[in-house]
Amino acid sequence: MSEYKNNNTFSFEITKRIPGSLGRAGIIHTPHGDIKTPAFISVGTKGEVRFVSMTDLKKINAQTMLSNGYHLRNISPEIAASGGLASWSGWDGPTMTDSGGFQVMSLGSGLGKVVSMEREKNVINTDPKERLAHVSEDGVSFLDPFTNQEDFIGPEESMQIQCRIGADIHMAYDELTSLADSYDYNVEALARTERWALRSLEEHQKLCDSLGYHQALYGVLQGGRWEDLRRSTAKKMAQMDFDGYGLGGAFLKESLGDILRWCNEELPESKPRHLLGLSRPDDILIGIEMGADTFDCVAPTREARHGKIYTRHGNINITKFADSDEKLDENCDCPTCQANWTRGQLRALLKSQDQEKKRQYYNLASMHNLRFIIRLTEEAREAVINGNFKEYKEEFLNNYFHK
């Protein structure tokens, strides 16, 4: 890793800016190494990326892994005893965790997933009073779908969990609203999120160095699709002592650029910003242009397992390529393509009744999709540094959407 490994510091430097926009390339320095931005963060929900080993993550040039505070909460003491997430997981690079707020409002409610851009067709009960995840000033009470037991996570509990897990970057506790929630409810929820942000900061500052290195905390911005709420909360969060910011919420796709601009025009330029839960190429490129530095999403590996493969000329359904000797994507440098696996061969693995062959497909397809998105952010970073980001974005999207 870099010279910054294990030096107990966290900082951010801007290397180059995109003229006329909020976008930039930079470097986030963490105790476990550097993150060159823009960067896509691979999601290892339970401390590992499904069907992709730590060795494989290195092969596809992954820089960072994000794990889930909600799913790791019950074994967080074990992780702490092992020296923190990097040591426990075997991933010796930078790590992040989320707060668990999304999970307690969606998985924990028993209602399915909250509507987001990556999951546009899912539905959530729109009346907050009727949801099974009950929000109060203290936090969120919810029914754990894995144990069928009542549970509770508030700002203090979330910080305690994350500090035991010991990632380099944590997220403050927030209340996620859905696209269906009213303006008035967003006002109420946003005020609560801002109070929870202060409580998260206070608790985090008590605990964050317990494993012997500094753990950074990002404040999370909500506010739905309303400019006044987004700008107001960004100004308030900017006055709090956060190390960076998470840009959250349920977005309408057409308003993503505006929402990011509203937030990032108010946030301090000197701190990094993480866009939560998005991985589609057009969303990432808009995010970069509007000042987001890092991105995460489970979609690349989840969609790979269901047969969706990413290519420069749009996504393909691998099940439609029986006996095809085409490569997945021309000029792709992922281990799968470099080993000359064809579309037909991968389809045969996916369709096989042999579970070992299916698992092999999951590994090969997941590596390909992850590398596709990671390479996108690498190329975008290079374009920012070379001063031709807008030309790169136009060319990439033209190829991607006009097959």
Describe the protein in words.
- With 403 residues, this protein is of the alpha/beta class.
- It folds into two domains: 11-297, TIM Barrel, CATH 3.20.20.105; 308-398.
- The chain contains 15 helices and 16 strands.
- The protein has helices at residues 54-59, 69-72, 76-81, 85-89, 101-105, 155-165, 183-207, 227-238, 256-266, 281-289, 299-305, 335-338, 343-351, 355-386, 389-401; strands at 11-17, 24-30, 33-37, 39-43, 65-68, 95-98, 134-135, 140-143, 150-153, 169-171, 216-221, 244-247, 273-275, 294-296, 308-309, 316-317.
- It has an eight-stranded parallel β-sheet. A three-stranded antiparallel β-sheet has the order 1-2-3.
- The protein is globular and about 60 Å long.
- Mean pLDDT is 91; it is low at 108-126.
Number of distinct helices? 15
CATH homologous superfamily (4th level) name of the largest domain: Queuine tRNA-ribosyltransferase-like
Query: Largest sheet, order of strands side by side?
Result: 6-5-4-14-13-12-11-10
What would you say the CATH architecture of the largest domain is? Answer: Alpha-Beta Barrel
Overall shape: globular
Strand content: 15-25%
Distance between the termini: 39 Å
Number of domains: 2
Q: Please provide the count of β strands.
A: 16
* Cα radius of gyration in angstroms: 20 Å
Q: What structural class is derived from the secondary structure elements?
A: alpha/beta
Q: State the CATH topology of the largest domain.
A: TIM Barrel
The residue ranges in which pLDDT falls below 50 over 5 or more consecutive positions are 108-126
Query: How would you name the oligomeric state of the polypeptide chains in this document?
Result: single chain
Share of residues in helices:
25-40%
Largest sheet: 8 strands, parallel
The CATH class assignment of the largest domain is Alpha Beta
Q: Please tell me the overall pLDDT.
A: 91
